[in-house]
Amino acid sequence: MNTTLNTLTAHKLLVEREKMLEVFHLVEENENTASLLDPAKKQATLQAMQEKLNELKKTERQ
User: Fold this and answer.
1) Domain edges within the chain
2) CA 21, 23, 24, 26 torsion: positive or negative?
3) Which superkingdom, per the lineage (predicted)?
């Protein structure tokens, strides 16, 4: 039961992450979750998300 719960939780987190990336237009809507597992793409996505977050924080302060 615990393994099933962990698997479902991990899947839910991956789906939510993919939705967030789509909202910020960091991945195409038809790109699947497997591409998120590529370390180079994952690092580039993380960098893009950090830059977007910094922009949002900067805008909010003004």
Assistant:
1) 2-61
2) positive
3) Eukaryota
Q: The tokens 């990336």 sit on which residue?
A: 21
Q: How far is it, in rounded angstroms, from Cα 28 to Cα 53?
A: 19
Contact between 18 and 27 (Cβ < 8 Å) = yes
Which amino acid, residue 2? N
d(CA 6, CA 2): 6
Sign of CA dihedral 21, 23, 24, 27: positive
**Contacts for 17 with CB less than 8 Å, ≥ 6 apart:** 36
pTM over 0.90: no
